[in-house]
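User: My instructor asked us to take a sequence, write out its structure as tokens, and then describe one feature of it. I'm not sure where to start. Here is the sequence I was given:
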Amino acid sequence: MFCSATLGRLVRFRSFRFSISMKRLGAIVMILANLFVVGNASSSGGDYHFGSGSFTKELWINRKAIFKKPVGVDVEFTTAGAFDWVFADINGNEVRALRHNNEHGGWTGMNFASLGLFGDYSIGFRNASPGEKQLKQGDVHLK
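Assistant: Let's start with the prediction itself. The structure tokens for your sequence are:
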């Protein structure tokens, strides 16, 4: 049997442990939430798959997360119209942009080595024509 002082310490200790667990749970939830900027994002087998999204100015994959040594990107647009592929370094500085006319929508892709890009980058799309751009899905191919 516990005396009231011991019981009080035990209750405070358990409450403290619970609050630590809730903080950890909150951190885990925030990390997971950051993975889903573009709908239905997932990662498996060396690729990072992202789902649908739309933009009138810019859209960055996974909230401008840095991808380690990406080798290529494929994306499926449901709308036509020019856009720029935009690449930023680990400091968030834009290092390269590549225009794509995207005359009919559908699948298009790019290769990092063909642009002389061999490091770690965040990947985005910038609208270069009137109206909203809509993408259905895509994949970042990783080494």
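For the description part of your assignment, you could build on this observation: Residues 6-20, 27-41 have pLDDT under 50 and may be disordered. Try explaining in your own words what that tells you about the chain.
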